[in-house]
Every structure is written in C-alpha cells, then in structure tokens.
Amino acid sequence: MNLEPINSALSQLRVLRSSVGLVFETLGTGVRADHGEEGKEQKFLQELQELLNSVNANLKDFESCINDLTPSQTPLNLANSAYLSLETNLERQALYPHLVQSYKWHDKLHEYSTFASTLLQQNSLKRSYYTNTKRRRSLPSSHLATPQMVENLIGSIHYNNMNLKIARPFMTNAILHITIARVLRAAVILKGLLIEWVTVKGYEESLLDGVDEQWTESRHQVFRKVQDHAHSAMLHFFSPTLPELAIRSFITWFRSYVTLFADPCKKCGKHLHNTLPPTWRDLRTLEPFHEECKQ
C-alpha cells in the first residue's frame, strides 16, 4: 500500500486547520492596536479577507490530495474497535482517543526497535555462554601445604644457637619447637605454612610435656611480653603469596632474642626499664628496644 498520498493529504489537512484557526483567532481578537487609528476597520477587513483566501486555497489543495487517494480494495479490519462507533454511552466512547494514543505509542516503539535492530546488526555483541579455556591462575594457599613441604622448609633453615624440631601431635598440622640457646623456648603452631599461634616460655619451663603446654602462657612476665611481640611479628610477616618467605622472616626475627638479657636498649641505653629487659626487636633492623622506647 502506497502511503505517500495519505501522508500528503494529512499534511495538507494540518495546513488547512492551521489557516482556519488563524481566521477564528483574528475574529476573536477583533481590531488591534497595530491597525492604527485611521482606517482600522478597513485594515481589519482586508486582513480577514486574506486569511479567508488562504483558507480557500488550502481547501482546494486538500480536496485535490483527497482525489488522488485510491480506496483500498480489501476491507479495513478494525477488529473490536469497530464496535465503538455503535456505542451510545459517552463514557465508553471516550475510549477511542486512548486507543489512538496506544496505537501511536506502539508505532513509535516499532520504529525505535527497527533502529535498534539495525545498529545491533552493524555492531554485533560478542558474547559467549561457554567458559574460556584460559583461566586465571589460582593463588597458592599457604594452609594447604603438604607435610613434606613443611619438613623441607624447616630443614633448610640453620642458625647458630637455635634448635628447630617439628612435632605432629595432630597428625597433619605441625608444631615447630624453637629453642634459642639457654634463653627461651617457643612453640609455633602451623597450619600448612601458615603460622596460627606462638607460645613463648623460659628455657626451664615445661613446653614439650603435653599438648596443653603448647597453649598455656609463661609464668614470667618477660616471656609473656615476648609472646605478644611474636604475635605482632607473625601478622607483620604474613604473606599469602610467599608463605615460605614469611616463615623464614619470622624465624630470623625471632632468633634475635638470643641476646634478650645481654643487649641494652638502643634508645635509652639501659638494660632494664620497669624491671624488664628490651623485649621488642625491630622488624627490619632487629635492634632491641624497650616497649616504651620503640615509639
């Protein structure tokens, strides 16, 4: 069906309605101030005559457009909307404008969807519902290390005046017993290559007698302070990607307590402060400090 004559007729109808509206607007306004004082009625009539001539010309153009229209050979199917013309109830007759508005909305939706389809065909989206064969390398988990890996790591660490021994009272998870000269002992509870807890006691205190001894604190305040500092160092050296380096760094730092009762504080130069030796070791330089002097 050729829609060009229909569009032309509708356009001409809008022009005709606009010209008729100007005529009624001029009649409603009457003589205006811009017509002047002299001959204002004559000017008003002349303007009205021009508008009427314009309406007459537009009407002829509209009639010619109507004559160019050819009636459809097939009957127009209005579906259920055809029954609206038979309705006598004024409230139901008001449904027709809503149907026209709905038709315009659907027509605009069809137009926009056509534009969107054209654009999407020109720029096709590359999507795949299949997983890519190249997957991201999973990060190593320090708590999933095998017992052999733990044995090899601890066996490769050697320091003077330090003894390392591994016990496995829990079958899989290991407990690393550290003895530093005749100064102190420590139990490092491991889960794979992850340090979970550190217990520090004096050299003469029991640490290897039972499992409960691995968790009880020392009866001496100095070793309880060292245990608190060991927990801070444990968290400082923790590395999820380099667990071996974390354990080596912690053991190197902990070995600096071999001079717990020998070296003075690097800041105040004293051996004792509040009846305690320098219990803190710098995490980078391993220098001894009192807890109050490390700030």
UniProtKB/TrEMBL annotation:
Entry GO MF terms: transcription coactivator activity
One GO term describing the cellular component: mediator complex
GO biological process, one term: regulation of transcription by RNA polymerase II
Subcellular location field: Nucleus
This protein's record includes keyword Transcription regulation: yes
UniProt keyword terms in alphabetical order: Nucleus, Transcription, Transcription regulation
Entry superkingdom: Eukaryota
UniProt family annotation: Belongs to the Mediator complex subunit 27 family.
Protein name, as recorded: Mediator of RNA polymerase II transcription subunit 27
